[in-house]
Amino acid sequence: MIHSEESVAAELDRVAQRPPAEAAPPVLAGYTVEVAAGSPEEYAQRVRHVLTAALRLARTAEFDDADLPADDFPDWFTDVSARDGEATETFAGDGRTAYGNAGGGNAWPVQDWIHRFDPDNDSRGWEFWDVIPVGPSRVRVWVDSWGESFFGSLELLWLLYTAGGAHVEGPEVRSASAWASEVHGR
């Protein structure tokens, strides 16, 4: 099992606040996101909001249930993840289109997306590490992929696009010192 109860709790802590540099593994995988709507800080908040809801469920839900509660997810995320794809926010609808155009495949129904956070499901090959604005319309999303450059992450791409990403590059595995340098603006 990749995601233990302790690792999910630590991941939830990292969503809430930036981890200390000494806690970083030797390498992290980074995604560079061109933000289409709002500031990079607003984008980061949208990503953190969705991940907070998912990770809270990962700690408390019985994933044997077909339908898990989605009440804590923002409306823009549940709406864009609906079968008909009616987005209440333009950034989410544009992100849904960009995800498809980038070869991500079909939209993710919200229940399928949530189930990727089942700790017993090993298809999610990453854990959130940090999201950092790195330009006027760009952010870097860092994840722990246990040093792997190829890992299950389509659900992450879905979030990165629907949160307002126009284009996503990555993952690129880099030394954790690259993340630490971005944290300190170097």
Describe this structure in words.
The protein has helices spanning 5-16, 40-60, 75-80, 90-101, 110-115, 154-162, 176-183, and strands at residues 27-35, 127-135, 138-144, 165-175. It is an alpha+beta fold. The protein has one domain. The chain has a 4-stranded antiparallel beta sheet with strand order 2-3-1-4. Strand 2 (127-135) and strand 3 (138-144) form a beta hairpin. 38% of the residues are buried.
Q: What's this entry about, in short?
A:
The chain has 7 helices and 4 strands; from the N terminus they run H-E-H-H-H-H-E-E-H-E-H. It has helices at 5-16, 40-60, 75-80, 90-101, 110-115, 154-162, 176-183, and strands at 27-35, 127-135, 138-144, 165-175.
Core attributes:
186 residues, alpha+beta, 4 strands, 19% strand, globular
Helix-strand blueprint:
Elements: H1 5-16, E1 27-35, H2 40-60, H3 75-80, H4 90-101, H5 110-115, E2 127-135, E3 138-144, H6 154-162, E4 165-175, H7 176-183
Antiparallel strand pairs: 1-3, 1-4, 2-3
Helix pairs in contact: 1-2, 4-6
Region (Disordered): 1-20
Protein name: SMI1/KNR4 family protein
Organism: Streptomyces pharetrae CZA14
